[in-house]
Amino acid sequence: MTATTSYQQPTERGYYGQFGGAFVPEMLYPNVEELRTQYLDIMAEPEFQAELKQLLRDYVGRPTPLFEAKRLSEKYGTRIFFKREDLCHTGAHKINNTVGQILLAKRLGKTRIIAETGAGQHGVATATVCALMGLPCVVYMGAVDIERQAPNVARMRLLGAEVRRAESGSQTLKDATNEAIRDWIANPVDTHYIIGSVVGPHPYPDLVARLQAIISEEMRAQLLEKTGTELPDFVVACVGGGSNAAGAFYHFLDEPSVRLIAVEAAGHGIHSGHSAATSVLGTPGIIHGSKTLLMQDEHGQITEPYSLSAGLDYPGIGPLHAHLGEVGRSEFIAITDDDALAAVAECSRMEGIIPALETAHALAALGQLGAGPDDVVVVNLSGRGDKDLETYLKNMDKLV
Amino acid sequence: MDRIKHAFASKTNLLNTYFTAGYPSLHDTIPLAKALVDAGADILEIGMPFSDPLADGPVIQGSSSVALANGMNLPVLFEQLKGLRAAVPETPVLLMGYLNPVMQFGVEEFCRQAAEVGVDGLILPDLPLAEYEEFYQETFKKYGLKAVFLITPQTSEERIRHLDRLSEAFLYLVSGPGTTGGTTLPDAVAQQQYFERIAALKLRNPRLIGFGIGDKAGFERACEHAEGAIIGSALIRALEDATDAPAEAARFVRGIKPA
């Protein structure tokens, strides 16, 4: 990679290094091609930008604050800031993407929206913008996830979305994504598929990264104000598919002094057989139309990851992250369920913020950074913990 | 003349039957192939089961899961297929599946073994055209394997012509929007217009219609617009509760194409 090439931009065919592309059946080719040929032009339109900015400000609540976490800073002997995506409408960064994609869908003339969801955060964020725009919304969710994320299922229904059970395979996020893709195959003309992460066929990884990039755009301005420089020493974010990390890293990708830390879910331990640490356990292959690192057996069958956090148990990672890891631009850390729960407790009691279980993985990495007193560390606080209360109740012995 | 060209040159109203390798039991693959051909199937499409078959509906998803649980994988399949040409000497045989297992096996090694056991062609729906032309075409050709491309109602004429130039087998006309086993056919008129539009293009390759074709009437209707049809999910459904899968498969084919 030459010095003039940006990590931000995939090739025309959607490749980040060896990862990416659009491995879709012919039935999806026209849909994906329509999106690919139009997304950049539409997003560049001044009216689109104006409408997006207004919604992000008045509806989502942006800019989200950059909060200096002083007690944790003292504990870890470094200067820690939280980018408060948990304060976004619906409680997580997911809505940055859905607001942008619903505006895109309208300009593409689409009249029906579909989405997949794991923990339910992306489903809620999609149902929310569909209610806002008066568009019918179908959210696919694994039957297992429907059982373990009942409050988010109720929220989606309250918002007017139809939640459809994905009964195939392992009945979790991977299968919900398969079902959403099959729905798109069956409804190629009127439907837009709002993918929730930087995964799937090109242009989705780039589209979602661009829409989440507002996170790091704001960080730079806020850091300048609070620390006198736009560039921190570390940016830390959790990675399932990797949308919040993509957004938090985006405007620092081409700033080599900033260390980018991607935190994966190790579940019961990386090599326990119950893990979602794709950067360690994954090998190159194709999942959901993208060539990337994924967890699979020796015969190329995709295996089911595990994490206590329903938002991190995806068997792949976005192709951008696979590339950043391969070339050494980002560093991966894996955090177990128990360490994430300990971070939930620590953040709750020391900063008065109950984080989402996914976010807690990023917080749990703070002790492993080797950050010094003069370093500035930004943790992307991607979501709030309300949706995880049931899990927290079940694990109260580890939390209090 | 290769087996695919010979089949289209010597027959009309061709029936291509799809079944999943290793379903309903692991060692049904060759007995099913033989039973289908003996009963009148003109082309065989053997499915390589995959954990996440995006283009398939619930029936083939189900047969794929069962086959994988039975222990089917590519090394096992190629071992079984060593008996293919003894069982079905003349019938064109295609392997249908998804790219990831093929990639993990190794594309070149996959092609070498497929050719060695007498496979004629490949249907890999998630192999994009641009990737095929750049990275796969040469290897397929080296081993004499023909790629089969899908066409849908949304495929542009320019792209159809391009696929027609590339194809050396037949074009797979997807009957409407949807996955295998159940396309959502909005109305028969639109479908008729689609088939007529394709027929009017005077393509150099023969066409087989597939997706959602499951009985004699559907087969005969498809044959009015193309050289034949592909039946998969309906056959798999017939095998679901069969005590004697090959006998049931033969009965199924005779029901579609009475002798």
Question: How would you characterize the overall build of this protein?
Answer:
The complex is a heterodimer of chains A (400) and B (259). Chain A is α/β, with parallel strands linked by helices and 400 residues long. Chain A folds into two domains: 156 residues, Rossmann fold (3-Layer(aba) Sandwich), CATH 3.40.50; 219 residues, Rossmann fold (3-Layer(aba) Sandwich), CATH 3.40.50.1100. Chain A contains 17 helices and 14 strands. Chain A has a six-stranded mixed β-sheet, with helices on both faces. Chain B contains 13 helices and nine strands. The radius of gyration of chain B is 17 Å and the shape is globular. A nine-stranded parallel β-sheet of chain B has the order 5-4-3-2-1-9-8-7-6. By secondary structure, chain B is of the alpha/beta class. The longest helix of chain B has 14 residues. Chain B has one domain: TIM Barrel, CATH 3.20.20.70. The mean pLDDT of chain B is 95. Chains A and B meet through α1, α8 and β11 of A and α3, α6, α8 and β6 of B. Chain A: It catalyses: (1S,2R)-1-C-(indol-3-yl)glycerol 3-phosphate + L-serine = D-glyceraldehyde 3-phosphate + L-tryptophan + H2O. Chain A: It comes from Hymenobacter armeniacus. Chain A: InterPro entries: Trp_synth_b_CS, Trp_synth_beta, Trp_synth_beta/beta-like, TrpB-like_PALP, TrpB-like_PALP_sf.
The overall average pLDDT of chain A, rounded, is: 95
The coarse silhouette of chain A is: globular
Helical content class of chain B: 40-55%
- Count of helical stretches of chain A: 17
Q: How confident overall, as mean pLDDT of chain B?
A: 95
Count of DSSP E strands of chain B?
Answer: 9
**Architecture (CATH level 2) name of the largest domain in chain A:** 3-Layer(aba) Sandwich
Task: Determine the number of helices of chain B (DSSP H or I, runs of at least 4 residues).
Answer: 13
Please compute the radius of gyration of chain A using only Cα atoms: 19 Å
Structural class of chain A: alpha/beta
Number of domains of chain A: 2
Count the domains of chain B. Answer: 1
Largest sheet geometry of chain B: 9 strands, parallel
Oligomer: heterodimer
